[in-house]
Amino acid sequence: MDEHDTRTDEDTERLAGELYNHVRELNRRTQDGPGLTQPTTAYTVLGNLAQASFGLAQTAEQLDLFLDRELSAGRLGHDHGELVVAAVRAHDALGRAHEYATELGEAFRRAQGALTSVHSAVEDEAQSLDKAEETHATVADQPASAESGVEPAMRDFPTPIGEVLSGEGKADASPGQRFSTPHPARPRREL
Predict the structure, then answer these.
(1) How far is CA 87 from the centre of its chain?
(2) Given this model, what pLDDT does residue 85 score?
(3) Region annotation Disordered: residue ranges (predicted)?
(4) How far apart are CA 103 and CA 109, in angstroms?
(5) Closest CA to 184 of 52, 15, 42, 16
């Protein structure tokens, strides 16, 4: 095992703290302005929120299993001698958290599904697409900048966006097939 595979309690605590910071930043970006202008962005965010919610349900279950395992092995104590009462309260609360997170994931998934056929209705969107294709061809014909080290995306994506959006291109996926269907965590076991 190398140093990158080593997991510590501090790493786990840091990840939980980063989760909160990411949610706070997501809230800021989706509030107003340039961070959320397209329905496809909302669709993508909803899919990721569904997956995250199902992941939180699994985390709640795993925390419950950890506490159960530690309690059964006699590796837990309580400052006031009420270990079993505290463990039962934690188990019940984690059970509710699991259920709520699963329900939240399902709600996000339903909201995402409702947006499958939604698109922007901006009047000059078709003109923008045509201009994007012209720009795409112009950029693809120019040599890459030696300073930037960046090559045009066309070399990686040979099908013009207009063909993909109109269904003429090589893309097989429809907007409803962007994400695999999230699956709720398995049912919890009782303490």
Answers:
(1) 31
(2) 96
(3) 136-191
(4) 10
(5) 52
Distance from C-alpha of 30 to C-alpha of 35, rounded to nearest angstrom: 6
Complete DSSP assignment for the chain: --TTT---HHHHHHHHHHHHHHHHHHHHHHHSGGG---HHHHHHHHHHHHHHHHHHHHHHHHHHHHHHHHHHTT----TTS-HHHHHHHHHHHHHHHHHHHHHHHHHHHHHHHHTTT-----TTHHHHHHHHHHHHHHHHHSPPPTTT----GGGT--S-HHHHHHT-SS----GGGSSPPP-PPPPPPP-
Question: How distant, in Å, are the alpha carbons of 64, 164, 183 from that of 76?
Answer: 13, 58, 33
Q: What is the pLDDT of residues 111-128, one digit of tens each?
A: 999 999 999 988 655 444
